Amino acid sequence: xxxxxxxxxxxxxxRLAEIAxxxxxxxxxxxxxxxxxxxxxxxxxVSHPKTKKFASGVCHPAKQ
Length: 64
Hints:
Blueprint: H1 10-23, H2 27-43
């Protein structure tokens, strides 16, 4: 197994810790399962919606 350092926010870490405690697992184990099971989202060919940088119909200030 290869160590994979990932950065997550505190809220996500807390959620993983709750699940780990409930299921009597380590946080690493829960994270690994979440990554593996979450890959089905991408395997299904579903793309994550991209956010727009600017609202539609609004001209960029530099182009005015």
